[in-house]
Amino acid sequence: MKGKRTNLDASACAIARSLGVIGDWWSLLIIRDALAGKRRFGEFQKSLGMAKNILSVRLQKLVEHGILATAPASDGTAYKEYVLTPKGKKLYLVLAALWQWGEEFCFAPGELTYDMVDRETQKPFQPLELKARDGRVLGPGDMRTLPRRASKAQRRASSSR
Amino acid sequence: MKGKRTNLDASACAIARSLGVIGDWWSLLIIRDALAGKRRFGEFQKSLGMAKNILSVRLQKLVEHGILATAPASDGTAYKEYVLTPKGKKLYLVLAALWQWGEEFCFAPGELTYDMVDRETQKPFQPLELKARDGRVLGPGDMRTLPRRASKAQRRASSSR
């Protein structure tokens, strides 16, 4: 893998590819704001304090990658709204993992003045857990990558070249 | 929040702060490689194809942020090794979430040639789930941030200013 970020989104590694598709850190913050209900360019711009041309480019890339979709403003005005697609919404797990890690490691006692909570009960979530198929809770040392066996069709295609 | 990334690591938002502390996308890939057992500068450099000076700066920042620690080479040679701290290892949940999202949304059928598996059984994990305290599985629409109530000490300090 070479040094340019643009190659990440063709990576064989699903982590690297995700990062290439999401684009950059600010895109994750746009997605965070979209999950919190922001839809208008102006809302994102005010929240993130980003230069308008840069925000515009990032929003467009998120649309191109199928993470956001554009829709006419719900109030009938001429504004464009940006809404998360199912693909975009599914990043909520990445955001929850980042929140929980940040909460545990990146704040002095008393410094974090927000909780991330469940809408219904207003209480924080359980800590995310990585589990094996049999239910065992796994730790960082338990992760491995394993090449998939080529399918029969792939093996046939390879041998006929 | 202004446009410069350097302000993220003082953010009030735990997601933004995590992103500021981790630093950039490539840092997550360094952490991925460290979790996979890489320890030497040369191993990271070969895996990521990064320019040596850039890799050096990123490794140093991860050490400064307490994500990596340096140790003498385990074989007694003069090399330096980079090892994940508990703080760094805990990012495995963020990496697992990125993997699962990438696997679901960023590959054409048959294109992903690796699984991420549990070391013991060689089988993929269960999908990560975000759960409320009472066990309900939550979706992206269930996440809210809620300001924490100021502690008595904080309220006393505020009123005496």
Describe the structure.
The structure is a homodimer. The first copy, chain A, has about 160 residues and is of the alpha+beta class. Chain A is built from seven helices and six strands, in the order ααααββααββββα. The longest helix of chain A is centred in the middle third of the chain and has 14 residues, at about 90-105. Chains A and B meet through helix 1, helix 2, helix 6, strand 3 and strand 4 of A and helix 1, helix 2, helix 6, strand 3 and strand 4 of B.
Q: What is this structure, in a nutshell?
A:
The structure is a homodimer of 161-residue chains. In chain A, 42% of the residues lie in helices and 15% in strands. The first copy, chain A, is of the alpha+beta class and 161 residues long.
State the main characteristics.
homodimer; 161 residues; alpha+beta; two-stranded antiparallel ribbon; two-stranded antiparallel sheet; 7 helices; 6 strands
